[in-house]
Amino acid sequence: MMAIIYFCALIFIFLWSMGLLRKGLMALTSSRIEKSLLLFTDHPVKAFLVSIVFTGVLQSSSAFMVIVIGFVSTGILTFKKSIPMILGTNIGSTFTTEFIAIKMDVFMWVLIATGLVCIIFGQRSFRHAGKSLFGLGMIFFCIQGFSKIAGMMTSQPETLRFLEMMQHSDWTAILSGTILTAIVHSSSVCIGILMGFMNEGTVALQEGISFVLGSNVGTCITAVMAAISGGLAARQTAYAHVVFNVLGVLLCLPFLTLITQFVALLASSPAQQIAHFSLLFNVASSLLFFPFIRPFHAMILFLLPNQT
């Protein structure tokens, strides 16, 4: 029982830390993000690249998509121009998983201490930077905590049932990733938890990869919710985000065994293997779809047509 309480507490701290990191970064860069979005959306390549950068800065594809949908719903940005951003935001979101896969046992405390000093004693801009540093340090703390508590959690009947369900098939692992990410509203949190279990050897690489694929779909829920009251163009944008991620998963599935074998060669650490897969998968799927932005746009309009 205590293991579950600790686990839930770590999830709460992780979410709070992600929010703190995002809040600090947003305070430092929010005006630049809005200006750049409007400035660099005149060409698909520019929009694609700027979405990668700013999703990385925000540490959240969901947060970036909410901004994009907000612009689309107000008419500042067209649905068609948002498509390259959808492709780019998936790549930008992988920076977080790559970062948290790095072992930073000592540096973690440096980040936390430096962040606290900046928050307490710094002036305005330093306080914002301090929030980001402190949040990042706490994220590493939570990842370390997930790894330590994974062994305790595996003795819990609920955890065993969940792990057995994931092992049943790739589809159940994908579904698990989708549902959990939709509930938590953060693929980074879910992948962080996954890394903890994988480091303890309780989740195999292929199951972990399948979970990440599902997490890619589950992260769309925030954009879908943001678009509900945002008008047709906003719903088309959110729908395109979902369709793109689902298609990416479907294209990946037939090659899952080969991909698993390849990813296993990239690193010895399970956490880094998962992080590398997330990066490579999102880069590959985005680049694969990029030349087909026009037909993809037409397909979404066919599925969710403009009102006449």
Automatic annotation (TrEMBL):
GO molecular function: sodium:phosphate symporter activity
Name used for this protein in its record: Na/Pi cotransporter family protein
Membrane topology: Multi-pass membrane protein
The keyword Transmembrane helix appears for this protein: yes
Primary residence: membrane
Annotated InterPro entries: Na/Pi_transpt, NaPi_cotrn-rel/YqeW-like
Localization of this protein: Cell membrane
Gene Ontology cellular-component annotations: plasma membrane
Transmembrane feature ranges: 47-71, 107-126, 133-153, 173-197, 209-232, 238-267, 279-304
Pfam annotation, one family: Na_Pi_cotrans
Alphabetical UniProt keywords: Cell membrane, Membrane, Transmembrane, Transmembrane helix
Domain of life: Bacteria
Single GO BP term: sodium-dependent phosphate transport
